[in-house]
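Form P-L/3: holo structure prediction, ligand zinc ion.
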Amino acid sequence: MTLTLDSLNHPTSSSPTQLDLVLNGKKVPLHIGQNILFSDSFGTIIQNLSKNIIIVTDRHLNQIYGKKVKYFLEKSFNLTVQIIEILPGEEQKTRKTKEFIEDEMFKRGMGRDTLLIAFGGGVVLDLASFTASTYLRGIKLILIPTSLLAMVDASIGGKGGVNTPFGKNLIGSFYHPEYVFIDPSFLDTLPKKEFLNGLAEIIKYALITSKDLFDELYEKKSKLDLNELICRSLLIKKEIVEKDERDNGIRSILNFGHTIGHSLELLEDFELSHGEAISLGMIFASFLSLKKKFLEMEDFLKIFSLFKMYNYPLLLSQKVSWKRIGHTLSLDKKAENKNPRFILIEKIGKIAPTPDNKVLHRVEVDELKSSLIWFCNRFVSKKESYARHY
Ligand code: ADP
Ligand code: ZN
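OUTPUT (holo model):
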């Protein structure tokens, strides 16, 4: 079944769904469905791409799923499957780890006909995509996201990359996989904190494009249909990325909440997860939208209460202050002459355009300062030591 908004609203079966992305003239099919990884169609697709398979994953996922996936492909499809394991965690997303993967591949004699399967969360997907794009000038790639965040974010868009001491994702490439397989049954083993991490991006999609999706998240907390939420998010991201593949224009609306979010991650030495950081970032961007009289108070309060409802910790350490945020903001990639620019909303589900019909808003220094002071008074912990609760 091909995925459309209509098929989402009127589901006819629980069979796997396919969504085709067209990027740079290349079609990238996304297959979505429970247990699709252990289906014949998955094995046959892999078999047709290559006989030499390397799976890149992290230790955590290798322990849970490594043997099962390898066994399935080797026994059912007569393939040779090797696994390269990296340590879990954002701090592994470095040039050094990329080098480690490359060296392991050379040692194992992997040639240009190798198919690299990236199996894991965003860290594995970003690292492995970047590695596939440069290994012997490019080898075939398949993405299998296992975290909610990677399913709704890293699996679409073709951005691979690594972090450097100078900032996140500063070195990388655009590189498209042959296929993406999204199997929500992997989420059964995902820790709650990681679940909220991904949900924050889904909330972002709702805030920038879909009141319906927001209402669903607001009203159906205890009976969310994850398959459907993932499909809706993918459709939204697909539409935006296809319009602006190389991230020069409209795609920047995906940065809603991320301007402050990235500053917070940096100031908290990455002890704050991406989801925690952007949940606070989205509250800040909504507050700015309110101050600039785009957003009504009622919508602002509803947005705030959604994050509280899902138990986002919404708490920062004393490492964060309005002055420090201000300083890191001036270094943001989207800043213009060191003045940060923000994506704002005019209501839930709708971006506020600038007077010249663009999407990045400049904010006056005084307005930014007073908003940052409100934000820090509200969210920076009054105590020196505390724990974030989930
Ligand atoms: P992201 O949040 O960008 O996906 P990571 O790649 O660091 O970031 O993944 C977050 C953590 O979740 C890692 O420790 C990873 O091993 C773990 N993880 C990812 N998917 C699953 C899963 N399906 N089950 C259990 N743990 C998972
Ligand atoms: Zn994000």
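COMMENT: The first strand starts at residue 17 and ends at 23.
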